[in-house]
From TrEMBL:
Positions of transmembrane segments: 133-154, 217-239, 273-295, 301-321, 328-352, 372-398
Biased segments, Pro residues type: 49-60
Region (Disordered): 18-60, 414-438
The protein, known as: AI-2E family transporter
Organism superkingdom: Bacteria
Coiled coil: none
Mode of membrane association: Multi-pass membrane protein
Classification via InterPro entries: AI-2E-like
Amino acid sequence: MSRVPGWIGRLGAGLSEMGERLNEKRRDEDADPDNGDPSDPSGGEQEHVPPPPAYAPQVAPRPDPVAAVPWGMRVAAEAGWRLLVLAGTLWVLMKVISAVQLVVLAFVAALLITALLQPTVARLRRLGLPRGLATAVTAILGFVIMGLVGWFVVWQVMENANELSGQVQDGIDDLRKWLLNSPFHVTEDQINDIATSLREAVGANTEELTSAGLEGVTVIVEALTGILLAMFSTLFLLYDGKRIWQWFLKLVPEQARPGIAGAGPRAWRTLTAYVRGTVIVAMIDAIFIGIGIYFLGVPMAVPLAVIIFLASFVPLVGAVVSGALAVVVALVTQGVFTAVMALAVVLAVQQIEGHILQPFILGRAVRVHPLAVILSVAAGGMVAGIGGAVVAVPLVAVTNTVVGYLRSYARETALKQRPRPQGATPTDVSLTDPPPQQ
């Protein structure tokens, strides 16, 4: 009986020791980070991966995807979506302008006429006339002169139409004889083929020509509407232009209002200088080319001179087209020699205009590169026809002036708002001050 309790005690001590060992083993497994999950079906055992050898190459960590994109590409992407937004805005604006194209062109034409007539209103105001009377006198006088010029051109063309038709027929016969006897080896059959092709083209396009004539009625109605809109707009701009400008400034955000208020008068001076200079240059072109073709015996020299004057308001292109018209009239009425002499006169006047008149008359008020002139005229003609070609260059000139002023204004504003440096600076010490005595 005495041996049984001893055996039980040794069994209990062994079980206690075994439990302590199991507890220690669990604690070691929980503390070991490389040990697998006990719930792993594989029993929590993981294969030990040996470290790489010393001679293995070092693998750099992967960079952030944003940092991996080159700087230039990130800048292009940032600028790209902004350009897309700007292009979309311009597209919507062009659609709106196209929908009210007649109103826009009439208002722009009114601005150009106002820039031409406004100095006369100011001069009459200085002489003591009331604003309303000065505006009425200037507007009536200007519109009457423009109407007389248009009436004179139409009257001269109608008056000389029969005579010009006979001269054109005689000129065509002379041109035909000259081509047959020229060194170009043109034969009678080739000339007849060209004439036949022209007649067939006219006959085949009779319906198109008829529809164009019917559309011409609509064009005339739209032109008369645009003229009336331009006249009324000119009257209000001459009479109340200052208050209209002040009302427009109220629509501008308050922060941008000082810059726009300063850019407006400068833009107006640029537009006025452009219109005055263009009128003077166009008048000189018309007078000298008209005198030249008059002494060459070209018929309708005066109406051609007036057409040259009006066409000169389209820079570069208008002078070329109107000069070519004068040369063609000289060719079909007076022959090849007269046409060559008329071409020489037109080219000489245009060279004087491009190298002397425009730099001297327009000066620095309108600084637009010839490439910008050509591109703007082409773009304006594609968008809005002849009216767009006329207003394209003054629009570019005014935009150039406004952008340049706003850039300078922003720079000056930034310099004024910059905090002043603390303490003495090298600029605070005068160069004439004597050095301090030691």
